[in-house]
Amino acid sequence: MMHLAHAPEAPAAPEISFADFLKVDIRIGTVLAAEAYPEARHPSLKLRIDFGPGVGVRRSIAQIAVLYAPATLVGRQLAAVVNFPPRQIGKALSEVLTLGFADAGGRVALFAPDSPVANGARLF
After folding, report:
1. CATH code, domain with 51
2. Could you read off the pLDDT of 75-106 as tens digits, one per residue?
């Protein structure tokens, strides 16, 4: 079941300033490696993502295993928040928050550019 805040009918979040938006550092990276992560509560994958020279390679535990097989993600670009503090998920540390949207079934679909961009490019 989808959390109400993620439901399409949920109202917009309270207004924020542009300066607040700029505090969230959303970058594009290319997946270098992906593997199943059965220790997570929800179907998840462990990812290593290259965000270019400014951010480097970071790890993410992403709840995307329902829609994506690990082998299909290597070489694919995706968006992630790179400036949240690391989060312990089971025995692994997730260093970035991989971004996606819930589909009608609550499965997470990745947020990614529709054409290649440089690793480390920032969302604006």
Report:
1. 2.40.50.140
2. 999 999 999 999 999 899 999 999 999 999 98
State pLDDT tens for residues 7-22: 778 899 999 999 999 9
Which pair of tokens denotes residue 46?
Answer: 């462990």
Query: Structural domain of residue 88, as residue ranges?
Result: 26-110
84 vs 8, 48, 66, 81, CA distance in Å?
A: 25, 16, 25, 7
Mean pLDDT of 60-65: 96
21: three-class secondary structure by DSSP: helix
- Count of CB atoms situated within 10 Å of the CB of 61: 24
Rg (CA), the chain: 15
Q: What is the distance, to the nearest Å, from the Cα of residue 52 to the centroid of all Cα atoms in its chain?
A: 16
